[in-house]
Protein 1
Amino acid sequence: MLKEFKNFIMTGNVIEFAVAVILAGAVGLVVNGFVNDIVMPVVGEFSGGMDFSNMKVILTKASGVAGEEGYIAENAIRYGAWINTLVNLIIVGFVLFIIIKAYNKTKKPPAPAAPSGPSEKDLLIEIRDLLKKQK
């Protein structure tokens, strides 16, 4: 069983999949940085200087000083962060769409079907005509 597991893990597909997952995580960080640091400030500027990442509905205000006894942290619904996540999703979807579209253009079109020989009907007609000539 251990040998089978080793063979499974060492196959190319599993290793390629692991590399793809690691790269996907790195790309996710790049996209998050792009959305949060480049796109959202521009969107905020066009929407009147709003900073979406700080938008929230406070359910319970913080009380006390952080790190001291009796401190209660703020409890809030951070819908601005959710808006950033939606923009992130749209950008990732668009980038994937562009990548797949470019990949599909690089694929060779299917070769045209080789012309087939005469059909069965044509062959039967030819045989009939040859038989008529022999009479």
Protein 2
Amino acid sequence: MNRWVEDQFVTFGPDNAASPVRVKGPLVFEQFICWWPMDGHTANWILSLIELHRATGESVYLDKAKAAANAICAEQFEDGQFSTWGRDFETGESRANAENWYNAGAFSDWALYTLVQYTKGLKE
């Protein structure tokens, strides 16, 4: 399932022609008809990757979760808001006339916190 999600919905960098904004990635698109890399959906993927790492011990899942967390943080606005719609990594542009969804930002915050707690637990 994760391979399918990555194949269909994850952008791993700025050269992804499907993305309307150039992002460093990895970030997750919402759905087939909404090609915007979104923090809330990336948060879902992070939580899935944590569970895949917990189940398998394979470092690739934790590496991807950390990369996705860093991508969410790289998309933040100057006031600290997460970008619901992705931001061009060079210009800072995002979806025109779109508000950030605070529920998605709160979910992203929770996923980032969960990742921190999970990785701390691995070191103990």
